[in-house]
Amino acid sequence: MYPIRKIFLASSLLFCCMTSMAQQDVNNVLDKIKGSLSLEVWHFDAGNKILEKQKVAFINKSDGSLKTQDAEWKTSVTAIQQEADGAVQLNIKFTLLSGTVNNASTAINFNFSDWSTKNYVMIPAAVYNGNRFPVLKGGYMPPYTSDMFCNKNVPLTISDNPRLALHEGEPSKIDLLTWNASTPVMSFFSPAMHKGFIVLTEPKTKWGINGLSVEENADRSKAGFSVTAPGVREYAAGFGDFSKSHDKPCNWKTGDEIDVKLYVYVFSATDIPSFLQTYMDKRKKLLGETPQYYVAPMSAIFHYTTLQLDKARVHKPSFYDTMYFPENSFTRFQLGWIGGLMNTYPMLSLNDAERSKWIANTFDFVVSKMQGKSGFFYGVLDNGITTVPERPIPDSIKALHPEIVSDAMVRKNGDALLWMYKHFLLYKELGRANEIKPEWEAAAKRLAQAFVTTFEREGELGQYVDPESGKIVVYNSAAISSAPAGLVLAAIYCHEPAFLKAAEAIADSYYNRFTKTLGLTGGNCGDISMDPDSESTFGLLESFMALYWATGKKHWLELAKAETALGSTWTVSYNYEFPKQSDLGSFDAHSTGAVWASTQNKHAAPGICSASGDYLFKLYRATGDTKVAQLLKDIINGHTEQVELPNRPTVSAGVTGAERGAKLGCSMERVQISDAEGRGVIGKLYNGSNGWTELNGLLMSLELPGIYLQTDRNEMFVFDQVQATSAKQKDGSILVTLKNPTPFDASVSVFAETSKQSLKPLSYTAFVHWPKVAVAAGKETIARVASNGNVTVIK
């Protein structure tokens, strides 16, 4: 069951910081944002269409009654104001005193007057800014219309997702269940009132999954946010489409009752970023932190995933001798995004001759076959052909723009730029700078210059670009998210101040255009439209921390904090209860830390595509904010849960025979807690693996310390799946006791420094020098950490 905190304790200790409230007191709190509370019973037809809503009348400060010809309902509202946190804790009970009621659901409504369509409505991982944007119909990855190409004024356009209406006269309603969101939350920010509203609910009650509903009236002057139990949608959202839902209301008999627990926040917020930071602070307040589960240490994940890459991602022969492919197909190579010229990075860290040849061949292949005349790279090479567009260009556009040969994802180019320079830095750190070929450096510098030239000419970088002419083919998305980070590394590596100047201008521009103004970033995934997505959010965070590394300016830390808060909206914050018969249910998988893909692709996945999240660690190190560290730890745990290990089938959980447990090191991009792909797909995995989920697992194991320790403060944070305690010694050293409760031997990296040293931004290759402490499976090791960070195993 869900790890829900017991929030209505009667202890005097608890009540010393809480105040009992009545229903009217709750309304007084909500009135600060022109809101009020009401309770209703919703009646449905034999299917799931609403026929009638009956309102409960309050008969005193806490109790309400609803009488009909055939039944009588009683309600009670218990409300407590938590003064320290600002939460209004609600426990609302519906009881059917007499009669029977068929096809009904209960509703807790937060009604807002003085409403504005300028309010920023956010349901995490599902709805951003109300999803109030132009829509493309056509299901998964719908084709772009002709007017979206070569049009600098193209509006941000999304797939057919749940949304509030863009135009007057249209019905404006969003119907979801809690499983459609990364956290069971509805929220909004009012720029006119400088106020925010957040309501957190339990994922379900004994009657089923709860519902989340937002509806505006005809003239958009009022809006209602309803938590329904059980939740009943008329239509269920899929991957860019809708289908008739299978939700069912309840049949109630005398004596039936339902309890719903909520946390409600009304708070001041100056802008969307400050609103999002409050969301990050409050998102776990109702359900609490999930327990730490011990599946495998980082070193075991690295070991088994390396075996998977060597077995399944290296092809002999390939287009160019032996090289690393990001996919299982050895005729189709994708650059960036899902692993091409990225999965080579952790393999380079192994520093052996055989893999080094494969890595060099991969570089040679990409540089010789995939770079266009402009300096931009093609995103795909398919059967030796690079000119196949990633986003099909209509003939009418080709006729108007004969200079455009094809198109490629800007995101893939941003990744290529960043990771080429990360490779170069690692080569140098390993003492192998002589292996970096001049043609690799020239290609990377040409790509950096292409970004600068395009931004100076266009004022943006678009979503798709023609690698030959350098012209933007599709404008207006945040798909460039990792490009400023790449330009930062290019500036340092090439001693080109112009690259750094451009990186700062691009990063500021995109933060202001998207995160600050719209409360979202998007268009970064290769199979979506311009939909909000997690990948662009974390990519911009990467860029902000790169700029902090290069400049030391606190400005970039402030932007990074806001971007992290947006990233937290994409990250599952609780453990969903998977059906026992599902793949994920069969091995008791935990969903906390899984990262949602996009508002079109309605599923979470094990990790950030495609990164370790080391920028979160760098932000934690720079600020000391443990919520940032915990977010990262959740993501690490969420990935570890999904990796197939000896005696723990995950991706092969749904198969039998010799294949079961035969996918060591594999992981799949599915942590499906919703019915977006059908109810039978909840908790389903597939007997395969994704190159990018393998990659981010390798990167987390490589670029993040297992244990981080500030020696002067004796403050420690454990990221690895080991247990650790520390004790300060008289000589200033610290004894760290490490216990390994997993069935795998661990090699735990320890990064120790002083608080003063933490003020200096961390280099990209710092991990090379972190000492490792071996801890056998089920055993204990004691290490002495000196004040200078040196580590000595003493037992």
Short overview:
With 795 residues, this protein is α+β, with helices and mostly antiparallel strands.
Describe this structure in words.
Helix content is 27%, strand content 25%. The protein is an alpha+beta fold and 795 residues long. The chain folds into three domains: 12-126 and 162-282, Distorted Sandwich (Beta-galactosidase, Chain A, domain 5), CATH 2.70.98; 299-702, Glycosyltransferase, CATH 1.50.10.20; 707-793, Immunoglobulin-like, CATH 2.60.40. Strands 1, 4, 5, 6, 7, 9, 10, 14, 15 and 23 form a ten-stranded antiparallel β-sheet that branches. Strands 2, 3, 8, 13, 18, 19 and 22 form a seven-stranded antiparallel β-sheet that branches. A hairpin with a 7-residue loop joins strand 31 and strand 32. The longest helix is centred in the middle third of the chain and has 22 residues, at 497-518. The relative contact order is 0.10. The model is unreliable at 1-16 (pLDDT under 50).
Could you give the topology of this structure?
Layout: H1 12-15, E1 18-21, H2 23-30, E2 35-44, E3 50-55, E4 57-58, E5 63-67, E6 71-82, E7 88-99, E8 101-112, E9 120-123, E10 127-128, E11 135-136, E12 158-159, E13 173-177, E14 185-190, E15 195-201, E16 204-205, E17 208-209, E18 211-216, E19 223-229, E20 235-237, E21 242-244, E22 250-252, E23 257-268, H3 272-282, H4 298-312, E24 314-318, E25 321-324, E26 332-334, H5 344-349, H6 353-369, E27 380-382, H7 395-400, E28 408-409, H8 410-429, H9 438-458, E29 464-465, E30 472-474, H10 483-494, H11 497-518, H12 534-551, H13 554-569, H14 583-586, E31 595-596, E32 604-605, H15 614-623, H16 626-640, H17 691-703, E33 707-710, E34 715-718, E35 723-728, E36 734-739, E37 746-753, E38 772-775, E39 780-785, E40 791-793
Helix pairs in contact: 3-13, 4-17, 8-9, 8-10, 9-10, 9-11, 10-11, 10-12, 11-12, 12-13, 12-15, 13-15, 15-16
Signal peptide: 1-22
Keywords: Signal
Protein name: Alpha-L-rhamnosidase six-hairpin glycosidase domain-containing protein
